[in-house]
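Table S2 (continued). Query chain:
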Amino acid sequence: SNARTDATLAGGAAWIGGGTGSGEIGVALNGDGAFLDIDNVAWSMSRGMSIAFWARIQQRTDPAFIVFLFDGGMSNDNMIYVASRGGPHGDFTVNNAASHSSLQTADANPQIADYVFGDLGEWCHVTCVASSTGTLTLHRYNAANGDRHTWTKTGLAPNSNTISYYSASLGRHDYNDNKYPLHGDLRDVRFYE
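Corresponding output:
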């Protein structure tokens, strides 16, 4: 959508230069409490949604949550996240009251030799799409070497509800005490409906 969502630097998150030659600004997350706290995000899943961002991993942790959206309830019925997981692999998960689907690059084709989110210090652009017909897609472009890959998984049941994600953050998991922080940099994070 064209609506803006505000994010607040928290826990030691700091502004940095974007680092891709564009002069854009990014945010450094130290892997030890730094994150961006996002205002409420709401989507009607009947229209699908997408999340796009640039990420530069500085140190690997397993898992490291890049985007985390949660409806604030006591179950994980309505949750969306993108995480770096299991060494080179990535995870794009969508839970809603009707269905759960997780696209894990470890289980999806193509299998690639490099890291989904690039080698340490490399900027990668990632777009995650949940279509209204129940398909999850993760697109990755590595700016360092020009590699592009796309992973797709079907099976998410359509849900016509509008879901408000009251607990939303970039760079950590907000559902329990273990925050699984990201040690890396983010820029140009966008949510689309």
